[in-house]
Each structure stands twice: as structure tokens, then as C-alpha cells.
Amino acid sequence: MALDVFAPWDDPDAKPLIQFKNVTKRFGDFTAIDDLTVDIFEKEFFALLGPSGCGKTTMMRMLAGFETPSDGTILLSGQDMAPVPPNQRAVNMMFQSYALFPHLSVWENIAFGLRRDKMPKDEMGARVDEMLRLTRLEKFARRKPHQISGGQRQRVALARSLAKAPKLLLLDEPLGALDKKLRQETQFELMDIQESTGTTFVIVTHDQEEAMTVASRVAVMDHGKIVQVATPDAIYEAPNSTYVADFIGDVNMITGTVRAEGAQLRMTWAEGQPEIVGETSKTFGKDQSVHFAIRPEKVSISAEKPVDAANAVQGQVLDIAYLGNISTYHVQLPGGQVIKAQTANNRRISRRSFTWEDSVWLSWTATAGVFLEQ
Amino acid sequence: MRRFSWFNATALTLGFAFLYVPMIILIVYSFNKSKLVTVWAGFSTKWYGELLSNQAMLDAAWVTLKVAVISSSIATILGTMAAYVMVRAGRFHGRTLFSGMIYAPLVMPEVITGLSLLLLFIGLNVDRGVGTIVLAHTTFAMCYVSVVVSSRLVSFDQSLEEAALDLGCSPFQAFRLVTLPIIAPAVISGWLLAFTLSLDDLVIASFTSGPAATTLPMKIWSSVRLGVSPEINALSTIMIALVTVGVITASLITKQQAVRQRREEQAADRVS
């Protein structure tokens, strides 16, 4: 079972395709990338996630060759990339604006890179047709970019960047210009194409849902640094900082002090409230300040005090957000703290169990949340 | 539809009359049978025929055409290069000064441009003739070309060039295969503008030409000093026609390009 899982980052013998080694990039006084070290492996779908200005696009442009690092080295298959100009790198990029050549047809756009390689005519024709099939664009081969829809343009851009069979494909906010429904469909298409071509993809996005959906690993960035690199589930379930916990999804954050350390950690956090009990693999000192992060869907809500819950607090329903598939309850505790609890609406609500100002119990297990130092 | 108003009609008529009556008189008199310019004696095209047998005139026309084609071509290349660098160079110290210096000859009085070029040619001891007129015309026409081309380059999406590089183009290939075809309408209208400017320049050509090279405007000017002849009217009519065609073509190309660009941008906007 474990052998089937694709996880070269856990394999000490695996050779990374791309290595960032202490890379720093400065623009004048502004440091866009700050002493960054990360490995990206072959066939990975690697997502760079962060707010705008965090340096994710700069990282990508350095991979493409449009920027050079101020310090440090970037290796591709063990070879230093710095002296290689963009037109000689086995790296292709799909631009945020798609950057399709307006004076060329869809077919010619896809063939553009192959022509530069002086590929024989019949071989090139076959390759372009293959790309058109892959992206389901056969019918639009003769059209100009302004004669097709946004979703089709996005696919032309993808086909063009894949045509040269690069070792590494860079995608700069590839789905930013599409509406939500089309974006979701395209995410799955991207994953299929990534899998069938076996190309390494590096995607830049500010959309956490997109990163979680498509990526094998996600790097959360902030101010030119990678805060955490991990698989989507690890990022979500075991964030290493409050920044990551807060950036990905919804979270309740409670700050307190360690009362009893060890695997079963106890944290005091407010007068008159029971201590929060949780398991942790990290070591904390006694009386250390600590943050407890718990996802709303891991908090259950009930009218009666649950008997065997590790943690239970009482509060009053402040707000209810009904989202169709789920409902989020904002529950105010006596100390003023608001905790969000989420329940799946797996039955039609003919009668809602709780309503505004109801007194309710919130409970969670000892493994539901994580303790974070910062 | 706005309602017809006598005020508007009068204003329009007066304005256009002011602009075009002199030229219309010139055109009409070029078809005058009489040799006396101010006396109408019936319709005739004989002066056009006579023009064709006037060797001096034909020589001047040939010089003018040669100068216009060569100088506008060189000006287009240099002007496009200047525009490309100014738009692409990004921010650097003295950028405003440099771009100002490219455009300064546009507003420089022609007499000064002509005089300074004359002094330069004398100083360098260059024989004045067709070559020096070409150089002189290139210097001022280049500014016009670079204005036209840089206004197109400003709205040019730079990621197109990056995409070309990314797909394996050398920087020069990227320019030739991607940038140039896209900005071609601006380059062509720049060339046409330079061509028409060169055709009707009198002042700078007078300063920089030598005894062997006389352009058509110079020829007209010198003949008129001896008296206006119907032949000159005919020649002027031809020149008006040529310049009009040139300017209209240039503006049509620019307009078509603007329309296409807007359409493409709208199409792109629908996506985002």
C-alpha cells in the first residue's frame, strides 16, 4: 500500500528535479525572495500559494529565466540554471494573460515552439494534432485567439506550453481569468493532463482551494519565505503555524498557557473555563504561551452536555450561516470568545435543531485540534 | 440625429472654405486652357501633358521620389528602434530627458534644423546632393515614426515577447516573429507619414541640397518666383493628390488597427 503512494519528498534517495539553494532575490531595497531553500521532485504538481506580493511569481519567473537570483543557486537536474537564457531552458511557462500570439492561428500558436526547434514538418504536425486532441481543441485549430472563448484560450496556452514536452511546466495563475464553474472543471483537466503527460508542474496561485485541489504538495509563502511545504492534507490538518492555519481554510484560534505538558497537553485559556485537552507530538514547556487551532467542522454542537467528550464548553448561538451543504454556527462563550462550529446538512432542514440565542454545548475530541507555538 | 441648424451649416461652410478654397482654385486653374493663370479660357488637360515633356520637372520629381522612399525607409527603421528602446528600457536616470530629446525635433523650427544640418555638412566637407537631403529628411521623419510606433508599443503586452523567448526564440527572433507582425500597422503608417513629410518639405531640402539635386517643391518654389504658370498648378494638383492619398492611407491603417485592438481587448475582457 505504502509503495503506491507518490511521495518522493519522503524518500532520502530521490533526486529532486529542481533545487532552490538559499535563493535570495532583491529588487532595489525590496527583498522579494528571502534565503529560500526548497526541493521539487519529478512528476510533482507543486503549488506556490500565498497572498499577492509574497514572492511566488518571482520564484516562477526565476525558474523561467526572466529573473536571476541575487544570491544562491537554482539547480535543474543538478545543473545550475543561472547562465542559461530562457530560450534554452527545458522549462515552459503558461502565462497569466495566456500571451497567445494574436496574429497566429491556434494551430500556429501551438506549433510556434516546435518550429523554433526546427522539428521536421510531419513530426511537428503530429505533435500539434496530439496537443489539440489532449486539450480538445481540434475544431478550433484554424481560428485566431480572439475568435475563441476564454476557456478555450486557456487550453491553447496550456497546449502551446506543453507542446515542447518540457521537463518542467510553470503555470502562473492559470485559471485566474475563468469563472468559478469553469475553473473547477479545468482544475480536474489540468490534473488529468499532468498525470497523462508525466510533466512536473509548478503552479502559482492565491486561491487556496485551487492549490489544495490540484497539488501533490503545497508551499505556503509569506514575505519571500516558505512558511510550510507539505501535502494538502498535512497543510490543512497539521499546519505548523497560525499563519498557515489561518491562510488555509477556516479556523478557530484560542490562545492560552500550557498547564500540563506531555503527549496529553492541557491548556488554560480563560477564567472559569475548563482546560483544553489535546494530544500533541510537539514538546512544549510548562507555562509556555500556546495557540490552539481547531477547524470548525471538528467542533460538534449539541443541546445537552455530551457525556464522554474530552472537551466541552457551553455558549450561546450568535449567528447561523446556512450554506446549503453545511451550516456554520457562531457560538459565543461567556468570556466573549466566539467559536465557529460546522455541521453537514445531510438531511433537509424541516426543523432546525438550534436557533439564535439558544444555549448549546460545543465539544471536540482530544485529537481534533493542534497546538502551535506561533 | 441632430437637427439641421443654420448656424452649424454656416460655421462648417466658412471653416472648410477657409481651408480648401485656395487649393480648389489651384486645382481648377490647373485645367485652364489659357496660359494666363488668372483668366479662365475653358477646360483642358494640356498642362499635364506639357508637364510630362518637361525634363527638368521630371528630374525633380524623380529626385523627390528617391529621397522620400529612401529617407522614410531609414527613418522607419531608426524610429522603430528608438521607440522600442524608449518603451522597453523601463525606468532609468534621465529617461524623460532622452524621450524628450527624441521628440524635440518635432517642434524645432525647420529653418534651424536645416541651417544646423547645412553647417554640419559644410563642416564635414560633404558634397551636398541627394545623399544629404536623404540624411536631413531621415533626421526629422524619424521623430514622427518613433511617436507613432511608441504609442502602439505602450499598449503591447510584454508577456507576448516573454512567451516567445520561453518557447525558444532568441531576442531578435522574438522581435521579428512576434513583436513586429503585431505592431506592423503602426510601422507602416509611420512610414507613410515619413514619406509624405519628405515629399512636401521645402525648407530643409533647400538648406541641404546641392546644385545637382533639386526636389519638386524646390522646383515649384523657384519657378513661381518667375511667375505662376498653369504647369505649376498641374504639378501642385498631382502633389496634393499624392499627399492626400498618403495621409488618408496612414490614418485608415491606424484607425483599423485601433478598432481591431479594441475588439480584441473587449474579447479579452469578456473572459476576465
From TrEMBL, chain A:
It catalyses: ATP + H2O + polyamine-[polyamine-binding protein]Side 1 = ADP + phosphate + polyamineSide 2 + [polyamine-binding protein]Side 1. Its EC number is 7.6.2.11. GO terms for biological process: putrescine transport. Signal peptide: none annotated. The keyword Nucleotide-binding applies. InterPro entries: AAA+_ATPase, ABC_SmlMolc_Importer, ABC_transporter-like_ATP-bd, ABC_transporter-like_CS, Mo/tungstate-bd_C_term_dom, NA-bd_OB-fold, P-loop_NTPase, PotA-like. Keywords: ATP-binding, Cell inner membrane, Cell membrane, Membrane, Nucleotide-binding, Translocase, Transport. It is an enzyme of class 7 (translocase). One of its GO terms (molecular function) is ATP hydrolysis activity. PROSITE patterns: ABC_TRANSPORTER_1, ABC_TRANSPORTER_2. It comes from the Bacteria. The keyword 4Fe-4S does not apply. Residues 18-248 form the ABC transporter domain. GO terms for cellular component: ATP-binding cassette (ABC) transporter complex. The complex is composed of two ATP-binding proteins (PotA), two transmembrane proteins (PotB and PotC) and a solute-binding protein (PotD). Belongs to the ABC transporter superfamily. Spermidine/putrescine importer (TC 3.A.1.11.1) family. Part of the ABC transporter complex PotABCD involved in spermidine/putrescine import. Responsible for energy coupling to the transport system. This is Spermidine/putrescine import ATP-binding protein PotA.
Automatic annotation (TrEMBL), chain B:
InterPro entries: Bact_Polyamine_Transport (IPR051789), MetI-like (IPR000515), MetI-like_sf (IPR035906). GO terms for cellular component: plasma membrane. It comes from the Bacteria. GO terms for biological process: transmembrane transport. It is a multi-pass membrane protein. The keyword Repressor does not apply. Gene3D superfamilies: MetI-like. The chain crosses the membrane at residues 12-31, 60-85, 97-124, 130-154, 174-194, 232-253. Its main location: membrane. Keywords: Cell membrane, Membrane, Transmembrane, Transmembrane helix, Transport. The keyword Oxidoreductase does not apply. It is found in: Cell membrane. Residues 61-253 form the ABC transmembrane type-1 domain. PANTHER family: PUTRESCINE TRANSPORT SYSTEM PERMEASE PROTEIN POTI. Belongs to the binding-protein-dependent transport system permease family. CysTW subfamily. This is Putrescine transport system permease protein.
